[in-house]
Every structure is written in structure tokens, then in C-alpha cells.
Amino acid sequence: VITFNLAFQSKTELWQLLSNNTFHFFLWSLFQTGASFHVFDQGRFAKEVLPKYFKHNNMASFVRQLNMYGFRKVVNIEQSGLVKPERDDTEFQHLYFLQGHEHMLEHIKRKVSIVKSEETKVRQEDLSKLLYEVQLLRTQQDNMEQNEVLWREVVSLRQNHMQQQKVINKVSVCVCYDCRCVSCRPLMLDDGSPSPPSTSKFSHSHPMEPVQEPFYIQPVRKCANYTPHIKIFV
Amino acid sequence: VITFNLAFQSKTELWQLLSNNTFHFFLWSLFQTGASFHVFDQGRFAKEVLPKYFKHNNMASFVRQLNMYGFRKVVNIEQSGLVKPERDDTEFQHLYFLQGHEHMLEHIKRKVSIVKSEETKVRQEDLSKLLYEVQLLRTQQDNMEQNEVLWREVVSLRQNHMQQQKVINKVSVCVCYDCRCVSCRPLMLDDGSPSPPSTSKFSHSHPMEPVQEPFYIQPVRKCANYTPHIKIFV
DNA sequence: GGGAATATTCTAGAACC
DNA sequence: GGTTCTAGAATATTCCC
């Protein structure tokens, strides 16, 4: 999948254009072969090529897009020197725009626009906020350490949990009522608190069994003159 | 004294150019007569006219200067409408650039570059540093998130633990042995696993009670022919 | 359809001369 | 102050759910 969308209507047409030398004024660089591309006649290029792939025919808009996608203009010695660049030559390059390396096009990404509406207005306030935030973050200990401690805590708690579970299972009690005796049904108690949801979604490569559901015990129904017969399974 | 210097080498040449209709692609506007000027062929204008008055032949540089001196591009209906602006037409205007009003040219001033005071510069630097630091700290977001998840896990486990504790307390059973009866001493069982150490040293501003010590149950001593009397505290 | 992402256009910033 | 390259900002337009 080629993500070099740079407003190219058909993802690869401009690329093909370059590779096929369709226009003599739109070519790969021959100096550092294929490391940049040239536009040799801005006027013709803008009028003849651009409309085929964009909704405009302005070189400036094309350049804006190139910059937006990280292309940089190649400034050769002519510009800064004495030699007049008589030929109408514009050269652009991009780290990942290389002749014969279509697979690198996917690394060409549009720059994200930095939204800073409030920031510009109340610069001072934001500065303070930033300072505050940084201080807050600074005061925090190394997150890794925290993580480590927390993780040990989790392991410990899980072990506790397992142990308690075993205890509860062992003390699993059956109460037989004299009245309308339902023999050997488990004693159910409740402490009245709502059942906590199982929120253990943290996936960690630790060899830990999933936490068992706590052993809830429902209230015993009132029953007059009952004599509990209790069995203990150990 | 004419101050319309807009980089025009000779102060009035471009003006004369316009007024004399020297080029058919560089004209005063006829719509709102003399309130703006047109460049009808960017390519020719850039190559034929600009070098005569500037040290370049780029339309972009010319436009940059126009903007620098307060000229604004005139956006006509064509651009936003359905009619394709087939003619290569660029129109600029300035409040004080009016055909037949040379005397107003002196009001056209180059925009002053906003000189950043040292204080502002320093602030800007600090802001940059701060932003950088914040970005660094934000890269630790993963750890923070992990922390968050771990913390929720800890809280959940602690709740479970508390609940089980309550259950165990409720089911707190006294077994009275017939033989050398120690009445109503708590039943102690053990599942054989070692007692987990309490490693909860993580201090967090969470309103959580300290974890209670788990309810360990020791093994019942063997005792021949015992008949368990069991009380259930509910 | 509506909101986010992207394109197009005009203007300004910034580096360098 | 000028030229150049790049980015900001304001609209358009398109994309995608």
C-alpha cells in the first residue's frame, strides 16, 4: 500500500511520470542519481502537468504541498554564486523519495498542524501551566519504579486472594435445616457490599492465574427453631 | 519624494510601466479603474519585467515584497465560482496604490519586522525548553498508563481481599472438641502455602485502608472421636 | 450528514545576503 | 532592506464513519 498521497489523485501517477520521463521538464536528478527531482520549466509544468493530478495549476501550491510533506528545495551553487541559473530549474528532495525505491514512499507523511489558538493569546498563562505541569511530572518518581512496586503489590494481593479462596473453599459449609430441609445446600452469606466488578484487564506476561471471583455468601433465610447440622469439608 | 520603494530600483519605473501600459500583461485594473493592477502572464512577467527592476525573476519573490508592503491579492469571483480563470491573471491592490495618485505612494510603507526584545527571546527559549521537556515526559505516557491499570488492579484486588476477609470473619467458626475441649477457639486451617509477605510499600494518595493481614487457618490437631459443635456468627 | 483530515490559497516568518 | 525557502492561517474540499 503506497501512502504517498501528497495530493496525488492517483497515488502513483506522478511517480510514474517521473520514472517514465514523460516530460522533459520533470525529471529525476542526474547529479545524485534519483535522489531528487527537477522541474525545469515552472510555467509549462504548472500549466501542463499539475492540472492532471491536482485541482490547480499553480507552482506555489505544489511547492506548499511539497513542504508540507517534508520535501526540501535543493539549493545548488548557482543560486548563491555568480552564475545566473539561466535554466528555469527547481529541485526538490526528500529522504524517502528515491528513484527505484517505491517502497519508501510510505514514510513520507504530512506534517501535522499544531493547533495553538489559546496558546498564542494567553502565552503567559500557558507558560505558567507548563511550568506547573513540568514540576508535577518532575516530582513524580521514576515511573518504572512505581510500576515495579505496583506490580509486586498486584502479585502479592493475588496470592492473598488465592489463599483466602482456598480457605473459603475448605470452610465450605453445608447447613441442613430442620424445617423444609434442603439438605446439604451451601451456606450463603453476604456482607451487604456490592459485588466488585472484575476490572482486571491488565495483560502482563506474568505467570499468574486469573483472579477467581470472590466467594459471595448470601444471607440465610430466617427459619424458626432450626438446629443447624453442619458438615465441614476439610 | 516618492517613498514607494517596494524594491523598485528606480523609484518610479514600475509605476511608469503601469501607467504607460508598456506591457499588455501588466496593467491597471479596468474594473474598479486604477484601484488595483493585474499581472496577466506570470511567466512572461517574471522573466521579462521583474529582472529589469529587481535582482530576481521569481513571481514568488515579487509577491513576497508586495505583501511586505501591504498589498493584498484581489480574489475575484472566478476563483471561488465555477468559471475557470483560464487567463493567467493575478491582481493586487493597496489602499494607497491608485492610478493617477502618485502622491499617495509615500504612504506605502514596508512592514516593520517585529523586533523581539531580549526578554521575549528568553521567554521563547524557555518555552521551547519546556515544550521539549514536556514532550519527553509525555513519551513516558505508556508507563503512566500501565501504572494506572496496575493501580486499578491493586484497588480491585484490595477490595476483593477485604470482602473475603469479611466473609471469613462472618464464617468465623468455633469448633469445640469433646476431647480436651477448648471451647470456642477459632478454627485454624492451613492450605500449606507459605504466608505471603506484606510488600505493600507503595504510597499513593488513594483513600484505601491498609490491607489486613490474611486470615490464616492452622491445621486442626488430630483428635480421636470428636464431635464438632459448631457455632456460626452471622 | 457531520466532523476530521487534507488541499488550496494567501500571507508571514526566518535565514541569509 | 531584499531574496529565498518554509510555515502559518484561512478557507475549500474530501474522506470516512
UniProtKB/TrEMBL annotation, chains A, B:
Compartments, record wording: Nucleus
Major location (coarse): nucleus
One GO MF term attached to the UniProt entry: sequence-specific DNA binding
SUPFAM superfamilies per the UniProt record, alphabetical: Winged helix' DNA-binding domain
One GO cellular component, as annotated: nucleus
Keywords associated with the record: DNA-binding, Nucleus, Stress response, Transcription, Transcription regulation
Entries under SMART domains matching the protein: HSF (SM00415)
Domain HSF-type DNA-binding as annotated: residue spans: 50-74
Entry superkingdom: Eukaryota
InterPro entries from the UniProt entry: HSF_DNA-bd, WH-like_DNA-bd_sf, WH_DNA-bd_sf
Keyword Nucleus found: yes
Any Pfam family: HSF_DNA-bind
Keyword presence, Nucleus: yes
Protein family per UniProt: Belongs to the HSF family.
Descriptive protein name: HSF-type DNA-binding domain-containing protein
Lineage: Eukaryota, Metazoa, Chordata, Craniata, Vertebrata
